[in-house]
Amino acid sequence: MTGLPLWTAIEAAAATAGVATTDWECTGISIDTRTLEPGDLFVALKAARDGHDFVAQALDAGAAAALVSHRPEGVAEDAPLLIVPDVQVALESLGRAARARMNGKVVAVTGSVGKTSTKEMLRTVLTGQGQTHASVASYNNHWGVPLTLARMPQETDFAVIEIGMNHPGEIAPLVRMARPHVAIVTTVAPAHLAAFENVEGIAREKASIFSGLERSGVAIYNADLDVTPILSEIAEQHSSKQITFGEAEGATLHLKSATVNDSCTVASVQVAGKPVLFKVAVPGRHYAMNALSVLGTVKALKLDMAIAVSDLGQWAPGAGRGQREVISLDRVDPRPTIELIDDAYNANPASMAASLEVLAAAEVTNDVGRISRGRRIAYLGDMGELGPTEADIHRDLATLPSMEKIDRVHCIGPLMRNLHDALPAQKRGRWAPDAATMVDGIAKDLDAGDVVLAKGSNYTGVGRVVDAIRKLGHPAAKANEDNS
């Protein structure tokens, strides 16, 4: 970092065609007074609440200035403001200006599953090879993408931009803003089917990420999908080079093997005919697939593959995305523990199947609890936006091969009632209409030696289950271990 301000009043006013009321400079950008740091430019977006209602609070908390469409009531005449006709449009303009002044390389990521964990893998790997900027959390929508760009320092070497969607036509304008040199589609799966007729429609929307590639840009996509021909067709229209990854013969990064154990995944891949062995410190074949797209990016940007493989082994997912932790049930005796797999951030059929596979591979501990045998237990919440076949999709989870090794499944929400009814009696746990109701019985459900997965779409509140499990004891240790 050079210590330069992120934006001066003059620069921001020129980028947004706004009017700065005073001379100021900012070191960051915030849209939330709860996380605002002194020196931030506060952006008064209109979302669930009108950000203009919080401008005075932001300035009192040390904001350098506020981006507004008018001077809010109660804000002093001489307050540092950047006044624009439309705050959302101005944020987009600020993002485009940040992209225009940056001379590094931009990588854009989308996919039905794995885009956030892939983005975080890229952050880890690219940080080892230059100054890297990446979106926080899942800031991947119409305000998240321009906010990520607007926060990008001018001296950035690598930027990683996550791009999501819920409806047709959302990705193209965002990727045109980001103008990536590399664009990735991690996978295409039946998610958001309420807004698309079929998976082919989802594939075309995901592949529209290639439409914003810079000249000589590289398209990276999964070679193992039924819809791979659609990705390939659109990639060829917009990119000078394509890199594919997966088990399919002919893939640029050809996965030869992936060994999943209780604490990591070790994979072997052929990269342009050369063998590369890599590890991710979290169990799950899907993590190995995500890592292939990261190594494809390393190849596309002509970076050091050996350093990248070493750094990749240090990556671990964040809270709610497959993070594993050990909960100690006794402050004196270290043996009685429960292992928690916190994958509560979100869910769709593909990520649900992947997480259940991880649970099935987990090692339980015997002879430490009131029940002599450790068990694999799942708390599963509804998956949203799946369209008219949603009941069948939930019911069909009962037929997954991984279910054979899972001892008990507790179901949360009206859609998961379909799975509950389809499970064999010995695996059928409790059903509850919501997470708050499910929480009441958790202490009786679990015992020392168990491994527990919590997963569901974010709106189901499965995070409450995670919190309740944590409250059974205290963290004893963390294992290195997302979704999507």
Automatic annotation (TrEMBL):
Gene3D superfamilies: Mur ligase, C-terminal domain, Mur-like, catalytic domain, MurE/MurF, N-terminal domain. It comes from the Bacteria. It is an enzyme of class 6 (ligase). The keyword ATP-binding applies. Coiled coil: none annotated. GO terms for cellular component: cytoplasm. Residues 27-94 form the Mur ligase N-terminal catalytic domain. Transmembrane segments: none annotated. Its EC number is 6.3.2.10. Keywords: ATP-binding, Cell cycle, Cell division, Cell shape, Cell wall biogenesis/degradation, Cytoplasm, Ligase, Nucleotide-binding, Peptidoglycan synthesis. One of its GO terms (biological process) is regulation of cell shape. One of its GO terms (molecular function) is UDP-N-acetylmuramoylalanyl-D-glutamyl-2,6-diaminopimelate-D-alanyl-D-alanine ligase activity. Pathway: Cell wall biogenesis; peptidoglycan biosynthesis. ATP binds at residues 111-117. Involved in cell wall formation. Catalyzes the final step in the synthesis of UDP-N-acetylmuramoyl-pentapeptide, the precursor of murein. Belongs to the MurCDEF family. MurF subfamily. This is UDP-N-acetylmuramoyl-tripeptide--D-alanyl-D-alanine ligase. The gene is murF.
